Amino acid sequence: MKSDTFVIIMAGGIGSRFWPVSTERKPKQFLDMLGTGKTLFQHTIDRFSDICSIRNIFVVTSAQYIDIALEQGPEIPESNILAEPVMRNTAPCIAYASYKIRKLNPNANIIVTPSDHLIEQKQLFQKTLQKGLNFVKDRDAILTIGIQPHRPETGYGYIQMDHPDKEIGKVKAFKEKPDHETAKSYLASQEYLWNAGIFLWSAKTIIQAFETYMPAMARVFDNGNDIYFTDKEQSFIDLVYPTFENISIDYSMLEKADNLYVQKGHFDWSDLGTWTALWEKSSRTYTGDTVSSENAYLYETSNNIIHVPEDKVVVVQGLSEYIVVESNNVLLICSKGEEQRIKAFRHKASNSK
Fold first, then answer.
1. CA distance 301 to 287
2. What is the pTM of this model?
3. What is the pLDDT of residues 95-129, one digit of tens each?
4. Which of 143, 152, 299, 316 minimizes the number of CB atoms within 10 Å of its CB?
5. Strands (E), the chain
């Protein structure tokens, strides 16, 4: 089964909520955000080392990140690093990789994963995915992974499960990021799981789904079948990709499919979508501060994120629940409670240069 298992890593985002460390030139998936010596992208590759051959891993990323992806994932065949000429969300990137994989192996079973999530319990993760692969390999089923929530989280989307007493059950509904009271009701009901953005299906099932729900896109990728893995592939993709709708796999397909299932994931997971999420997963001082540099000196502080260069002496006094980040010639000082505004701050700062 391992030879029939393929992985698609989506690595095209710009990580704007981690500005100014994450930039369009080098976004967060290609950075060592956790101080482990490996980038989030490299951790994602490692996570699948016992699930499939490294030659069965495909990466879809922006054309401007191809060299970074090749440098950080040198074991992956160069033909498996797919360059998007423009950003078009998750539906086109998943379709592109799926059609290439089908050409290699029509019997393929495919796992789709983001490149910038944190999953610390590798063995539990692999056990969950192996069970999911066993479920989809002989079924016309689209399977998504939902994480058992342990707090009323407002920063994640949710999946409502039809039969919450089962490990794998039909999806009843997708829910957008809720307010706090709604999140509390989701937690209490035990019907809702966090949407981890990880999917499993067979190549046959996902191609049929694209033909059903996005027929125009499916025809284009099908027409490219004789071009994949040739020197004409990139020219073909550069020509057709900008014509695709900018749309997620959720909106284009999953919310319409009647063969959609969700599997409970019991492993520790975070999408590391914000500085606060990173703070929650980082080691902290007895005052609750996360400090990246030995040259940062803190006085009367608590629960801050201090992410500054090692070669600068930084003194912080009296702050609580703040983000203090210096990178790429930018200093950001922002309340943790206002970090949803970082995208706007980034936009304003970029336009002022």
1. 7
2. 0.94
3. 999 999 999 999 999 999 999 999 989 999 999 99
4. 299
5. 5-10, 57-62, 81-84, 109-114, 118-119, 142-147, 158-161, 168-175, 192-202, 260-265, 269-270, 290-291, 296-299, 305-307, 314-317, 322-327, 330-335
